[in-house]
Structures are given as structure tokens and as C-alpha cells.
Amino acid sequence: MSDRPKYVYDFEEGDGGDKRLLGGKGANLCEMTRIGLNVPPGFVITTEACLAYLADPERRLPPGLMDEVREHIRRLEAKTGKGFGDPANPLLVSVRSGSAISMPGMMDTILNLGLNAETLQGLIRQTGNPRFAYDAWRRFIQLFGKVALKVPDELFDERFEAIKARVGARSDLDLGADELAEAAEAFLEVVRAHTGRPFPADVHAQLEAAVRAVFDSWMGKRAVDYRREFHITPDIANGTAVNVVAMVFGNMGEDSCTGVAFTRDPATGENRLFGEYLVNAQGEDVVAGIRTPKPIQEMAQEMPDIYRQLLELRERLERHYREVQDFEFTVERGVLYCLQTRNGKMNAPAMVRTSVEMEREGLIDRRQALLRIRPEHLEQLLFPRLDPGFRGRPLATGLPASPGAASGRIVFDADTAEARGRLGEKVILVRVETKPEDIHGFFAAQGILTSRGGKTSHAAVVARGMGKPCVAGAEGIRVDEAARVAVVGETVLREGDVITIDGSTGHVYAGEAPMVEPEFTGDLATLLGWADEVARLGVRANADTPADAERALRFGAQGIGLCRTERMFNDPARLPVVVDMILAETPEARAAALERLLPMQREDFYRIFKVMAPRPVTVRLLDPPIHEFLPREEELVREIEALRHLRETLAGLAVLGQALPAEGAGAEAARALASLQGQTVEQALARKEGMLAKVRELREVNPMLGHRGVRLGITYPEIYRMQIRAVLEAAARCVQEGIAVDPEIMVPQVCTAKELEYVRAYVDEIHAEVEREAGVKVPFRFGTMIEVVRACMRAGRLAEVAEFFSFGTNDLSQATFSFSREDAENKFLPLYNEKGILQDNPFEVLDVHGVGRLMQITVEWGRRSRPDLKVGICGEQGGHPESIRFCHHIGLDYVSCSAPRVPIARLAAAHARLREDEYRFD
């Protein structure tokens, strides 16, 4: 017995469940044959043969492969009663690709193989239909020429169009046998001229060349690009099988047709046969768009018996595969054949609807209903998106930082965005980069575009939290905020020009593109309810305002896992008070400013607690460096210069007794005058100069590793004390009103238990005061973010003080890799991903081998000290399905993510539970 592997399987002997070996198409052909559907006979050459071929430096077919193929051709001849290459009774075959994962149109197919000058005449005699035979012949020459001989397709098209033009034919259907014979002769000349050799007449040589061509197409550019785009790795699908199938013909006359159908509508999920067909055509005509096909329902009148058989086929396919099927069929002289079936590709609304309806119909159970939908697929339901039919050319491309799409007029600063937004205008905020003081512009804008920054930049994080589209780091756009223009190559975009951004792709378009609005359907609510019943991980939302909290509840959040107190400072009405606090030179002056902020924060917390009651709300004390609440140095310098110029202008005009002009040389001074907001020039100048001095005083070499988080709380205890009081007094008010609350006070940037003990002392002191003043018991929990590597190593000690941990994986990833997030994403991370140095961007997908190991150690050591320690994650990766799967694996209690990703996280948490036995990360 030979040790050589078996490379070829007849449809009757192939295992329909082995898609890795036989490819999806081949496995399904074997399976359909096994269950008795009318499938043309054939055989499958395995993916192992493909991999052996591709591994050979000289691209030689594996030894013995063609011997096996010839043996299976003999079997095929016996089944069909025809001969391969037989001039009297020719057997023709199709040669088609098929990987383990469907990659429609990405690899090559050749139809009508086995034709030459002699078998062509045999086909004419066999069918009595010269037009059909010459049509098949010219199709084969062109397809074989393009795929196997690499002849450019347009060379054939030029000759064919010339013949059609000469005879006045609008389509190939208007051509008779003579014109098609002429086209075939012209195509043979094209092959000879391009390759220097005649078209191959040996049918076995044709077959061998076709097998090689299909194998080669696995490494073709479009297939490689497709696998990269959809993250199809070798462990998912490796190599393509080759399916050799006896040809059946849909172009044999008016009683023949070909078509593609879905067992349910792939756009809506409606439970009805959906598809198209063409009479007197071959399958490529439908998918290539050569002719306009007819809706499948028309077949009920045109071919009623075939339509009835199609409805029966639809039912059998769905009952067997328990999934919506996309199938191809051909009718040859009134006989229906099923040529292929695969799981149908549908949009998210259709997937959700069919999951719920198929469960109710008893076709699938709830486990299958949940697992058939990829969590990230739900993004389509949650954000406005570009119309799928839109074919605009991108003006520029950046990083897809927050999904969804938006159109609006360009504005270059947050104040203008707010002013125009109040007037009802749709605006896109365009900045070099954003800062916290731009927050009011975010509220007003439809979307955000920055020329600098990454997917975890301020703009990206805030936009995701708001559910607004964002394109970040579009370095091809040069933004000049002072001149109010953005330049892309030769294109100049001015304030007021309309653009469209697509935060799902990173594309930026000139003008307004058509949109499709999201839908949160009842079927989605049902599906996610099933997910919640299954999941062990809870899902919370990152939310900073009462409106954010209400939105999070609509998406099904089970609490707030991260409420960032600094976001409350960014309100335009509060920012001046925050600036007063920063500029204060004494603790007393700082306390006075904080006393003004206290009622504002207290009211915010009260409203958030009320919205989320009785769910937990984790409040993070102030985290960023305080200089971030001040304008950038270059902006202050520019404003100070304008104010000084204004002072000089006013002085000069006063001497002359003239008014300040609105345009021309005095325009800049006029704008400066308008910005005074009730101050004198000297007052405004003094304040701006004070800000500039403070910005320079607070400047740090690396602010992300500097004076921030708990370090601020210990240096300026009055800041943290104000925030703690606001939280506890808001909770006390809720208790007084009979509202159940579950507040959690979280300290950021902790690296030692001593820091936690300092802050806990503030909490205990203020808690006692609040309870005494309010006359009620005020519940709370005290915990810390884990975002410093040392904190992971001291988890056991920290857990003696903290009642909960929450991983801040944005900063923890940055610290673990020693990467600056924005620099890494804009400089070298794409190259690292492309070269396989890193498989994923660690700021999007949790790095389980590095950051994940730290998390695992932290959970284990923390729970040794405090067995009931609650642990969650609130970094960006908390909404990523693969990261959620890891969080489930290491025993986290919850994940927290931006509100629009909550449905995705809920489904991912269910998937993690349902597939926990399959998970490996070593």
C-alpha cells in the first residue's frame, strides 16, 4: 500500500464535515450528494495537494496527483456515459476553487473544460445545437486564456465587442452560431498572439493547467488581500481545494437557465426565497453582471414546475444545514441541478432576524442562534453608516477610530462647532488633535477628524464614548487651524465646505455621501436577552454624564464601569472655574474654586446615580495632568499677541478719535475684542499671561508618566476631597429619596498601597461627615484602577485596601510595551502588523501574552488577599470580542466599554461562556 497521501475524493466518498481538507464548496458537494440532492457528479482535489504544490519552490504538482485525477476522470466517465476528450460524446467539466472559509470571487474558476476542435463538433452533434456549442467554446477559450494562460481579459473583450458592433447586437444573446464561431476563432488568435503558442488541444493538459491555475489563485493578490482584510489566518483556512464537476448547461435553450438564490432574504432576513436567474445562460453571466437577471419570483410564471422544485430545495437545504443557504443552480433542458451551497452572507439586521425566527421555528436552538452571529457584526446596527451602494473616491484616509459615518460642514474649533450646531447646522470638527476643552465641540459635531492621533487618542476615545464617528491620524491632511483651511494634495478645504467621514474605514470624502440609519430592533433585544441569560461576565458602560448613562441603559448596560470625573470639568460653563483652580497660588484660593465646582459635580453624580439605580457606578477620581485643562502654549502665545495688538490699536484709535474697523488691518484686533466677554483688555491679557506661565510651569517631558492620577490627589488633596464629597453627598441624597445606589470610588494610577491608604483616609473622614450630616447610611465601595505594572506585582498588598480592581488596559498596555500610543499607531504599528511582528494592534486587541499575563497574575494574587475581590476592565479593549473572551477565561467579573459597544460586548460575553472549553491562549 502506498504511503502517499490520498489527494482526490469522489463526492460519494468525501466527508462533508471536513472543510479544512475538502474546502467549503467541496465538502458541501459531498454532503449534498450524500443526502440525495441532484448534484452533477465530480470529485475534489484536497487543500493538502494545494499546500504541497505551493511549498515546492519549482511549483510542481505533488507526485502521483495527476494519476489520481485521471483515475477519477475515468470514474466520472462511467457515471455520465461520456468520454473526456471523446469527439463523439464529449465530457466537459468545470474546475472550481474552494477554501475552508467562503471567499466569493477571490479565486479562479474555469468552465467548459474539455473542448477542442474535435470535441466541439461532437458537442454539436450530441446536442443538435450549434449556437450552444460555439457559445460554450468561446466562453472556454476566454476563461481558460485569462485564468490558466494569463491573457488579459480586455484583449478578448475588444474582439468580441467589435463583432457585436459590426452586426448591431446589443448583447451576446443577439449573436447567432456564425458570429459566436467567429468570436471563438478571434479568441484563438488572441491566445496565439499573446502566448506565442496555439491554444492547448489535449484535454488532460487543459485539466492539469487548470488545477495549477486554481492552486496559484490562493496566493493571488485579491485572495491575499481578502484574507488580510477579514483576518483569515492559516489556522482558519489554508489552501484551496479544486472541485472538478461534470458540466451541466443553463445555455441550452429556453428550457434551460442558471441562477443564484438565498433561502431567506439576505438584506432583511425575511423568510422567503430570494434570488435571480437568467434563461439560456451560464452561471458566470449572473454573478458577472453581463446581463440583467430576473427576480426569482418570475420563475413561478415562466417555469412553474422548476420554481416548485426550487422551493422544495430551499426547504431541504435549510432543514439539513440549519442555516440560511446561498446556493447556485442550473436547469438543463428542464432538469434542476444544485451546483453549490454555502452559508449565506447577510448584513447584521438580517442575521439577527433570522437567528430569532429560526430559533422560534425550531430549526436551531438558542446556543446556535447566538453563536451564528459574530459580535463585531452588530456594529452595523449601532451606528449610521454609508450606503453600501456608495462608490465615492476617498479624498484622504486616516485611522478608523470610531465607527459610523457622518457628513457636515468643516469647522476648525470647538466654539464655532457649538455656535453653528446651535443654529441647526451639521458640522464636522476638524483639528490637528483634540484636547479636553474641545468637548463642547464634540457635543455639537456630527463627527471628528484629526490629522494627528491614534485610535486611542483623546478624539477617538471621546467619540467612541459618544457614539460619534471619528477618523484620527489622517496625516495626508494638513490642517492649518489659524488660516481655517485643510489641504489634501492639490485640494484646499475651507471652513464651511462639506465633507463626509467614515469612522469604520478611515476614509474621508469631499461632499455629502448617502447614509443608512441604524436600527435597534425588537429581534436584537430578544437575542441580547438570550445572551445575558448565558453570560457570566457582566457588561457595563463607560459613561461620564447623565445623558451618557441613559444611552448606556438603552444599550443594555448593567452599570457604569468608568465615570471619568474630568469630563465633567470640560463643560464651557465650568472650565473657567477649573482654570481658576489651576491658576490658584494658595490652597485657600484653590479651595474657593473647588467650592464652586462641588455643587456642579454633586448634581452630576446625583443624576447619574438616579438614572442607573440600583446598578453600580464606578467613579474615577481625577486622572489627567491638570495642564490638559489649559489651552496649548502656541494658542496662548497667539492670543496674547492679538490682545497686545488690540491694546496698541485701541490706544492709537483713541488718540485719533476713530472706531475700530470690522475688516482689513483691524479685523484680528476686532476678533480679539469680541473674545473679551466683559473683561477689559488688561484683565484678559493678565489672565492669558497667567495661563501661559502656568502651562510652562506644569510642562512635563512625558505627561502620561508624570504628575497625574493619585499623585495629583496626594499633592493637591483638596481636589480629591471635593470629588469624594460630591460622590458621597450625591449618594446620600439618593438614599434620602429612597433611591437604591451602588457607588464605587476608584483611584487611578496607583503603584503602591500607601497611596491607596492616603486616599482611603480622605474617604473615611468625609464618609463619616456625610452620614452624620445626612442622617442616613451611605453605601460605597473603594477600589483602584490597575494600569501601572508595579500595581500588578503588588496586587496582593493593594487588595488589602481595595475592594475592587479595574484594569485600565490603555495605560497598562502602553507601560508594558513601552509604546507611546499615538506615536506607535501613526509610525510603526501598521508595519509591525503587516510584517507579522505583532499580530494585532495592542491598543485595540488585548495582548494576552504580555498584558494578559499581568492581568492573570493580578487577579490570582489579589484574590488570595481578598477572595471576594471584584475585578473588571474599563480600557478600550473591554469592548473587543477576543479580549472579552480572555477576560472571561481569567475570571473577571465584568467588562466596561463605550455605550455603543455594549450590545457587542453582551453577545461576546455569551460567546465566551458558550465556547469556554475551546479557548487556548498559550
UniProtKB/TrEMBL annotation:
Annotated EC: 2.7.9.1
Molecular-function GO terms, alphabetical: ATP binding; kinase activity; metal ion binding; pyruvate, phosphate dikinase activity
Residues bound to Mg(2+): E787, D811
InterPro entries: ATP_grasp_subdomain_1, PEP-util_enz_mobile_dom, PEP_util_AS, PEP_util_C, Phosphohistidine_dom_sf, PPDK_AMP/ATP-bd, Pyruvate_phosphate_dikinase, Pyrv/PenolPyrv_kinase-like_dom
Residues the entry annotates as binding substrate: R564, R620, E787, G808, T809, N810, D811
Domain Pyruvate phosphate dikinase AMP/ATP-binding: 21-55, 67-297
Family: Belongs to the PEP-utilizing enzyme family.
Purpose: Catalyzes the reversible phosphorylation of pyruvate and phosphate.
Protein's recorded name: Pyruvate, phosphate dikinase
